[in-house]
Write a structure and sequence with these properties.
This protein is of the alpha+beta class and 99 residues long. The chain contains three helices and six strands. A hairpin with a 2-residue loop joins β3 (39-44) and β4 (47-55). The radius of gyration is 12 Å and the shape is globular.
């Protein structure tokens, strides 16, 4: 089960570009350790994030993380509509309250 899950109208390749910019060398400085058209994994300094973008009627974005939850919330808030929240077992209250 993913830590976070959102829906977006963006294409999977657009989601992966945003993820590269945010988590990669020019963003948080994590190293991309694996990559495909719809999935990437970044690691660095004890942190890990795996992102998948699955196309359907809309694109479902799933993220799994280790030691990087605050940054994931910063990634999701400006890039994906918070009203399109699907599910996630980690609390999204700070995103909805604007913290």
């Amino acid at each position: 089960m993913p830590d976070y899950s959102k829906k977006t109208d963006l294409e999977p390749r657009e989601v992966m570009k945003i993820a590269d910019d945010f988590f990669g060398q020019d963003g948080l400085g994590l190293v991309k350790v694996s990559h495909s058209e719809d999935e990437s994994c970044f690691e660095g300094e004890g942190s890990r994030v795996k992102i998948r973008a699955c196309k359907g009627e809309t694109t479902k974005v799933e993220l799994e993380s280790s030691e990087i939850d605050y940054q994931i919330k910063k990634f999701l808030k400006p890039n994906f509509d918070t009203n399109s929240f699907i599910s996630g077992y980690k609390p999204f209250a700070p995103l909805f309250l604007g913290f």
